[in-house]
Amino acid sequence: MEVLNPPSPQTATSSNVQKLLRTIMGTGEGLLRGIQFGDAIADVKKKEKAELFEEVEDHVGYSFDTDNLETVDILYEKDKQNRVSGIELDIYMNTDSSNDSLKNELTKQFTTLYGKPLSNTEIPTWEIKPNGKVSIKVVKNKLDRGLEVRYIQSQKVI
Asked: What global pTM score does this model have?
């Protein structure tokens, strides 16, 4: 008789990480979760299914937990017209290996979407044409490990 052992939680399979990536990124539309730079914050509130945890002058913040009890916080930064001017994702992972796997999946996705990362940056950064950038920073300290993904809209030159 064959005994099937459940996979150990330490080995995040690539399918788990890809599922997590899809959960984080959403439908594939927009930059993230169907949201683009310039979208009205009111539209974000309609589209975003995660839990609203803060709404302050310069951003609205949403949060959700993954199946593995990892936490994803999404901050939609807003400009003076109450439109999305930037997006920050703070992703808190349980293990270094799952963190590395997710970073690799994000890197692959961004390279597919936006081309090779820019070469003159300290942290991996991609140009989003015509008017933005996205970067992935690994965060690792005694308390947390995770990724900080930032979508930054370039200022329009007037």
From this structure: 0.87
Q: Centre a 10 Å sphere on the Cβ of residue 146 and count the other Cβ atoms it contains.
A: 24
Query: How far apart are the C-alpha atoms of 83 and 44, rounded to whole Å?
Result: 9
> What one-character DSSP code corresponds to residue 61?
E
Task: Report the side by side order of strands in the sheet with 71-78.
Answer: 51-56, 59-65, 71-78, 84-92, 145-153, 132-140, 125-128
End-to-end alpha carbon distance in the chain = 73
Residue-wise pLDDT for 85-133, tens only, equals 999 999 999 999 999 999 999 999 999 999 999 998 899 999 999 889 9
What angle, 0 to 180 degrees and rounded to 10, lies between the N-to-C axes of helices 96-114 and 14-25? 60
User: How far is the C-alpha of 150 from the C-alpha of 55, rounded, in Å?
Assistant: 18
| Amino acid making up residue 10 | Q
Could you identify the residue written with the tokens 């945890």? 53
| Element containing residue 57 per DSSP (H, E) | none
Report strand pairing: 84-92 vs 71-78.
Answer: antiparallel
Q: 74 is written with which tokens? A: 């999404």
